Amino acid sequence: MPNGVYFPLIKTILDWIQSKEINSDGKIINLHVVVAEDAKFDTQINTIGINDKVTPMFKFGKNLESIAKKSLRKVWIPVLGENQIDSLNKLNEEIAPKEICPVFPVLSIDPYRAKNLLLAYREFLFDTLDLETGNFVYSNEQNPFETFRRIYETAKHYYEAFDELKGCNIVITPMSSKLLCLGSFLAAYVLLHEKDDVGIAHIENQTYSIDSSIDLDEIKKNSTPFTMWLTGEIYEE
Q1: Which is the most buried residue in 3, 26, 144, 213, by most CB within 10 A?
Q2: How far is CA 104 from the centre of its chain?
Q3: Is 75 left (phi over 0), alpha (psi -120 to 50) or beta?
Q4: What global pTM score does this model have?
Q5: Cβ count near 12 (within 10 Å)
Q6: DSSP H or E run through 4
Q7: How many Cβ atoms from other residues are within 10 Å of residue 89's Cβ?
Q8: What is the H or E stretch that residue 188 is in?
Q9: Alpha-carbon distance 12 to 99, whole Å?
Q10: Which three-class secondary structure state does DSSP give residue 42?
Q11: Closest C-alpha to 102, from 154, 39, 163
Q12: Cβ distance 201 to 54 under 8 Å?
């Protein structure tokens, strides 16, 4: 399921749970998000064609849509995944960020994943963007709450740094495996609730393909289920 579908869906449910409408009877509702994670398989899903336009994600785009009306500097936080060079170039062109902090999965099932991403995007990162490694953000591939903290802390750092210059707008782009993307969702959700200038920008893919030689039944066996408890109370009083 694409990020553009399940991000707004989870946000809608969270907002609904936290609204007075659903909590008026005093009942506590828990929300768990369950995913089957297989980062290696995610890298084998190929995108075929991308849309020409960078769009704000539904439910996460209000601030991005008003960027043109503001003089805010943009800080771009792309959560890197495989085979995304065309999207990265398009996003960079459209966003025109002042600062860029790419997120790498350092702690990963594949110990070489971050290295391989760095090699795949080295020209884009160092030649096109002229980045220094001090801008890199590192997170655990299988811990979305760590990814949340890394992105949240990075955003807060730039809000403070640009405060004297009328602030900045954080633009998050989830382009990686499920748990890393969910970590970026949590960061955007919390920042929005704190009334910060943040949004999620993405490019819709036209379609996807999977190598016909891949045994999907075997993939299912190798996937690891994860559950994230996002809101509620685990024990009743």
Answers
A1: 144
A2: 12
A3: beta
A4: 0.88
A5: 12
A6: helix 3-18
A7: 12
A8: helix 178-193
A9: 30
A10: helix
A11: 154
A12: yes
In which residue are the tokens 């005093």 written?
26
Number of Cβ within a 10 Å radius of residue 88: 21
Q: Please, which residues have CB within 8 angstroms of residue 60's CB and are 6 or more apart in sequence?
A: 7, 8, 11, 188, 192, 198, 199, 200
Estimate the share of the chain in helix, then strand, then coil, as percent rounded to the nearest 5: 45, 25, 30
Rg (C-alpha) for the chain, rounded Å, is 18
Structure tokens at 121: 């995007």
141's tokens: 């591939």
